[in-house]
From TrEMBL:
Pfam families: Citrate_synt. It catalyses: oxaloacetate + acetyl-CoA + H2O = citrate + CoA + H(+). SUPFAM superfamilies: Citrate synthase (SSF48256). One of its GO terms (molecular function) is citrate synthase activity. Pathway: Carbohydrate metabolism; tricarboxylic acid cycle; isocitrate from oxaloacetate: step 1/2. This is Citrate synthase.
Length: 428
């Protein structure tokens, strides 16, 4: 496209190129705005209108409810692929051949041992610690055990760091949960697939054999795929911006985990379940909570509703809602919380406040119900989100490094005091 955008500032016109993405999205390229105009910047809190990078990993169309990883639809991937295939696709750009997948899996297993000294770090945390805080700390701590992983100037070094974290992360996830439950911290079983192994590491009792349940394996596989990437969201942007200073992969991921923890982002899955529980305890009066959500003087929000980008429906939520019915049915679990969730959804979809603001259930609305049916404690829900998001964060970090993006460093519009003369304390 040779068209340009014209900006007029104080009577002077400036032209900027229009860029078009592969799905015809249009962006004004303002890279030269400051230098052309002598210092003018754009202001966009929350980056609602700002593209922070060019990316070829994930495409989403919020109006049409489309989500694709590297061009493949989320519906098809959730149905036909497994989590490691999707991880490979996200990170390296193409679906793997059997040979490539076997090598990727073997390399991950080769790196699945976690230094035993990490246990000492876990031991220092109180049992009451939130597992997201523990996971973020342990992921950052891995850098101390593998200092060379920071230097990723070759593709080979980058690959090593990637398979290392893909191998060790599920162990850390399982350990975060087991520590909280007072269970011994065990290692995985290399004979198992990635997802089977995670489940065994989480749930195996020391005094009993662990029996795999294919329903749980399938459900977790699907949930991890649905969470695997979501373009430039809060945590992915955090990973990219941390990594842009050339901090290593593990600390970049640790900062992404911290960003994910918040209840407006990944922490919403825990918040949804707590909200549904509170509604149940309160007699199941969904109308009362709908009114609270609409009351501008009440900070309460309907957790699991709304999305910065999806303004029609979240395709992941549709898949998860169906999966919740199937998993609970297969496991023979009857959970009154599922009925409350469905009731709340029905009411919200007919409510003018929610219709006007285009607020629909998001990925987190039903996922907690499945996690709970699987026996995963509520505080672990966001950790499970992190496990799924790991390949997405890695892909975003790798793309940022491969494209040699500059350090992320936004500008600001300063609104503080102008120059003031310093007064010594006796004169204040
Ligand atoms: N309940 C009640 N009102 C809401 C909600 C909600 N869940 N979400 C947005 N609104 C209202 C908001 O008050 C505002 O109203 P008004 O225009 O009258 O001031 C309007 O809708 C627009 O909201 P916003 O906060 O400007 O929208 P945003 O794009 O900045 O925020 C969001 C998106 C996801 C943070 C927000 O919808 C929210 O807080 N949802 C609840 C938390 C949640 O479920 N988060 C998970 C997101 S999906 C998974 C992930 O990202 O990890």
């Amino acid at each position: 496209m040779s068209e340009k955008a014209t900006i007029e500032i104080k009577g002077k016109k400036y032209e900027f190129p229009l860029l078009v993405g592969s799905e015809n999205e249009v962006a004004i390229d303002i890279k030269t705005l400051r230098s052309d105009t002598g210092g003018v910047i754009t202001l966009d809190p929350g980056y609602k209108n700002t593209g922070s990078c060019e990316s070829s990993i994930t495409f989403l169309d919020g109006e049409k409810g489309i989500l694709r990883y590297r061009g493949y639809s989320i519906e098809e991937l959730a149905e036909k692929a497994d989590f490691l295939e999707v991880a490979y696709l996200l990170i390296f750009g193409e679906l793997p051949t059997q040979e490539q997948l076997d090598k990727f899996e073997a390399d991950i297993k080769e790196n699945s041992l976690v230094d035993d000294d990490i246990r000492k770090i876990i031991d220092a945390f109180p049992k009451s610690a939130h597992p997201m805080g523990v996971l973020s700390s342990l992921t950052a701590a891995l850098t101390a055990f593998y200092p060379r992983s920071v230097d990723v100037t070759s593709e080979e070094a980058m690959y090593k760091s990637i398979v290392r974290i893909m191998g060790k992360f599920p162990v850390l996830v399982a350990w975060c949960m087991r520590k909280k439950q007072g269970l011994p911290l065990d290692y995985g079983d290399d004979n198992l697939g990635y997802v089977e192994n995670v489940l065994k590491m989480m749930f195996k009792n020391p005094n009993r054999d662990y029996e795999q349940n294919p329903v749980l394996i399938d459900a977790l596989d699907k949930l991890l795929i649905l969470h695997a990437d979501h373009e430039q969201n809060c945590s992915a942007s955090t990973v990219r911006i941390t990594g842009s200073s050339h901090a290593g992969l593990f600390v970049s991921l640790a900062s992404g985990i911290s960003a994910l923890w918040g209840p407006l982002h990944g922490g919403a899955n825990q918040a949804v379940l707590e909200m549904l529980e509170a509604i149940k305890e309160d007699g199941g009066d969904t109308k009362k909570y709908m009114a609270k959500a609409k009351d501008k003087n009440d900070p309460f929000r309907l957790m699991g509703f709304g999305h910065r980008v999806y303004k029609n429906f979240d395709p992941r939520a549709r898949i998860i809602k169906k999966a919740a019915d199937e998993v609970l049915g297969d496991l023979g679990v009857e959970d009154p919380i599922l009925d409350i969730a469905k009731g709340l959804e029905k009411e919200a979809l007919q409510d003018q406040y929610f219709v006007d603001r285009k607020l629909y259930p998001n990925v987190d609305f039903y996922s907690g119900i499945i996690y709970r049916a699987m026996g995963i404690p509520v505080e672990m829900f966001t950790v499970m989100f992190a496990l799924g998001r790991l390949p997405g964060w890695i892909a975003q970090w790798r793309e940022m490094r491969m494209r040699k993006e500059p350090i992320g460093r936004p500008r600001q519009l300063y609104t503080g005091a102008t120059y003031r003369e310093f007064k010594t304390i006796d004169k204040r």
